UniProtKB/TrEMBL annotation:
Coiled coil: none annotated. GO terms for cellular component: cytosol; membrane; nucleus. InterPro entries: BAG_chaperone_regulator, BAG_dom_sf, BAG_domain. Keywords: Chaperone, Repeat. It comes from Kryptolebias marmoratus. Residues 16-39 are annotated as: Disordered. It holds the Pfam family BAG. One of its GO terms (biological process) is protein stabilization. This is BAG family molecular chaperone regulator 5. Residues 26-39 have a biased composition (Low complexity). GO terms for molecular function: adenyl-nucleotide exchange factor activity; protein-folding chaperone binding. PROSITE patterns: BAG (PS51035).
């Protein structure tokens, strides 16, 4: 394969140098191109190309940073090959010089690709968020356990982790495999930590372990529970790269040994103890499922979500939503409010709710965004209908009337937002953002004079305006899978 690649540099087919004319020796009958293929310089370039072909896939899927051992190894190997190419003696022959130049360009291209991905702003952003997650988990979970205390798992910690997950899903990868792979690895580990901590939160609410006096097997199960708690902390440390000594394989062996110990217990005849053992076994199984992450991300199907069936389902729904949105806007522009596909939109929401996200944060985010797109059309239709059906009485509070005037303006602006298909740098985007902000200021200036219905209407109008702004922001944030 390497030989064919170098031969292609000259635009000639490769025949392996084995052609012979009638009765003549191979050496005597060789074409000049064949002689060139057997030139020492060309043979050396063939050898270099074989090594480059072996390194290429490794470089193209490397998702680490410059300070990692694997990066330094590949950089060292490529630099060595570049020096070897440079030292090839072409004897001043143009064909050999061209072959050497092309070989050097390929090696330089791999070096450049390796460095660009390892130093890409998105890769550094992934690392910064991963570091923030490690610091948070180390401070709140791992360190208290190592000090002999108990980690405090509360909503604040769970929310902080969820915020980091959301920020990771929003990092742009530009379709680069190494960046997708790095983001996927960071997300899978952080989501696994979330699962482990959520399981632990649920366990803290249970009235277990049982008293050791109930049955002789309970004392053994209680001892296993203590070991499982320690293993849970070790797993969190492993997932976040905070454990230098343990490995996933070692921890897996420990947990499987605990399962064997539990299976050997005789708990027949006591339903409470059987349920207790079952609960601990399920806890162990929950930890074991997260121990296969060492090879996670090597299969491109895991992080190339464009090929994911759930993403395809979501995209199909989005295409349907886009068609309905165009129809709604077209009919509204013509003053026709008879086109109200709310039942169809509701069925799409039900469909999205049934999409399997496999706990993948990127798929969850894709589904959430599709839901927002559907809800934006539903709220637009609801407000249009409310404006048409509105029949204000003579005793209507002036402030209440002012809120409805703002809602009328918001409905017109929402139609423009629904139809907007530009970028944040566009003048139309900035105009829409400014007009929506003015409507929020107009609502803020409404004085309800203590009228409760007006207060409630103003509050709902403010929320409605903010939702339109958020939707406009979502449409232009260039999010990717």
């Amino acid at each position: 394969m390497a030989v064919r690649w170098l031969c292609s540099l000259f635009g000639k087919p490769f025949d392996g140098g084995k052609r012979m004319d009638h009765g003549g020796s191979q050496e005597q009958q060789q074409h000049p191109m064949e002689q060139q293929q057997h030139h020492p310089a060309m043979l050396r370039l063939y050898d270099v190309q074989k090594e480059v072909s072996a390194l290429g896939p490794q470089v193209c899927t490397f998702s680490g940073l410059q300070n990692e051992r694997e990066y330094k190894r590949m950089e060292r190997e490529l630099t060595r090959l570049l020096l070897e190419v440079d030292q090839v003696d072409t004897e001043g022959r143009a064909e050999l010089q061209g072959a050497r130049k092309r070989a050097a360009q390929e090696v330089e291209g791999l070096l450049r690709y390796l460095e660009e991905n390892a130093t890409h702003p998105s890769r550094l952003a992934i690392e910064d968020l991963s570091t923030a997650a490690r610091q948070l988990v180390d401070e709140r979970v791992v360190e208290p356990q190592r000090a002999g205390g108990v980690a405090e798992i509360n909503d604040e910690l769970v929310d902080a982790l969820q915020e980091l997950v959301l920020r990771l899903t929003q990092i742009k990868t530009e379709g680069r495999v190494p960046l997708r792979k790095a983001r996927y690895r960071a997300l899978t580990r952080l989501c696994a930590v979330q699962d482990v901590l959520e399981g632990r939160t649920q366990q803290q609410t249970l009235s277990l372990p049982l008293s050791g006096e109930t049955h002789e097997a309970v004392h053994r199960i209680n001892q296993v529970m203590v070991k499982v708690s320690m293993a849970r902390s070790q797993l969190v440390a492993l997932l976040m790269g905070l454990s230098g000594r343990d490995s996933c394989a070692h921890l897996s062996r420990i947990l499987m040994e605990l399962q064997v110990e539990l299976d050997a217990l005789d708990v027949s005849g006591n339903a409470a103890i059987r349920n207790y053992r079952k609960q601990v076994v399920e806890e162990i199984n929950g930890l074991l499922k997260h121990l296969d992450l060492e090879g996670e991300g090597d299969d491109t199907r895991r992080y190339d979500l464009a090929q994911n069936n759930s993403i395809r389902e979501i995209e199909a729904v989005r295409a349907h939503v886009s068609h309905l949105r165009e129809g709604v806007l077209r009919h509204c522009a013509a003053g026709d409010l008879s086109f109200r596909p709310k039942a169809e939109l509701q069925s799409l929401l039900t469909h999205l709710d049934q999409v399997d996200t496999a706990k993948n944060p990127c798929i969850r985010e894709a589904r959430r965004r599709a839901v927002v797109e559907v809800q934006a059309i539903v709220t637009f239709l609801d407000l249009r209908e409310a404006l048409v059906c509105r029949q204000p009485g003579p005793a209507e509070h002036p402030a209440h009337r002012a809120v409805w005037l703002v809602l009328g303006s918001l409905s017109d602006l929402q139609a423009q937002v629904l139809g907007f298909d530009g970028k944040r740098a566009d003048k139309s985007y900035m105009m829409l953002e400014e007009l929506l902000t003015k409507q929020l200021l107009a609502l803020d200036a409404v004085d309800a004079h203590g009228d409760e219905s007006t207060k409630m209407a103003r509050k709902q109008a403010v929320k409605f305006a903010q939702n339109i702004l958020n939707y406009l922001d979502m449409k232009t944030d260039e999010w990717e899978y």
